[in-house]
Amino acid sequence: MNTVVGVAWGGFTSEHDISKKSGSTVFNALKSSPHQVYKIHISKNDWYVTDDLENKYALNKADFSFIKENQKLTFEVIINMIHGAPGESGQLAALLELLQIPQSSCSSYTAALTYNKRDFLAVARSLNIPTARFFTLDQGDVYSLEAIETALGFPCFVKANRAGSSFGIYKVYKKEDLKSAIEKAFEEDTQILIEAALEGREVSVGVLKWKNEIKVLPITEIISENDFFDYEAKYEGKSQEITPAQIPEAWTEAVTVLSKEIYQKIGLEGITRSEFIFENNIPHLLEINSIPGMTLESIVPQQLERDGISMLDLLEELIAEALRKKEYL
Fold first, then answer.
1. Residue 157 lies in domain
2. What is the domain count for the chain?
3. Is this prediction's pTM over 0.90?
C-alpha cells in the first residue's frame, strides 16, 4: 500500500531536540516500507516537509499537502512523534481531526488531558487509580510553604505541569528549598504540580493496541543513579533499565491489569508508556506519556525488542490502526 505518510517531529517546547531523535528513528525504520514517507518539521516559526534526500517543500497547513515535482501530495496518515506541544498536548491532533487526517496517537481531548499532569491525576483518582497526594499552584497564586508541608510532607517533587523528559522537575527535601524549586518550575510552565514522594520501586509500562487487542509490553524496572529518573537518567545513561523487570509475579499482574484499565478507560490509542511506583505492594501511577520516546536510549524500543516486535512492524500496525480511524473521524 503506497500510502503518503508524514513523520511529525520537533515542536514548541524544550523537548524539540529529543522529538527529532525519535522522529529520525521512526523515519529510518519506515524507509524500507512501501509507503511514501516524509518528515514534517514543526517549530514555532516554520512548518515544512523534507524527503530522504533532504529536499525541502512548503507545507500547506490548510490541508496538509505539499508540491513535489509539480505534483500535489496530501498526507494520508501522520505518525506523531512530537513530545510536548503541539504533538503531545493535543493541538496537532485537533488540527488533523478537523482535516480528517488520521494520526498515530490518541484524540486531541485525551492527549490534552494526559499532558496536563494535575488534571489527569484528578481524573485518575476519580477512577480509583492509586496516585501520590498532590498540591497545585498557578503562577501568581499566593501560597503557604507550611500548608504544602502539612499536605505532602518531605521529600516532595515540584513539577512543571505541562512538560516532559523531566524538564522542570525538582526533588525537595526541606522547606527551606521549596520556594526556590517552585520558582524554577514556573520558568518552564505557568502551572505546577507538587507531589508527595512515593518510596518504592519504579517501573515503566508500554501499552499499545496490537491486532485489535490491548497489549502490555515487557515491563521495565528503572533504577536511577541520580536522585530520581531525571533527564540524565533518561538520556545520558545514568540509570539501569531492566527489562523484563525482576519484580514479584503478583506485582507484574497488578500493574498489567491496571495499565490495560487505564488505556481503555482514558481512551488512549497508539503506543503509550506509563510510570508507576510500587508502595506497600500497590502500583501508584505517576504519569502517562501518550507519545513516548523512540530514541536509541528510550525505554519503549527496548521493550519492543524484548517482545520480538520490530520497529517497522510496530509502525505498520500504528499506520493500519490510524487508517481505521477514518471510519469515525
1. 134-196
2. 3
3. no
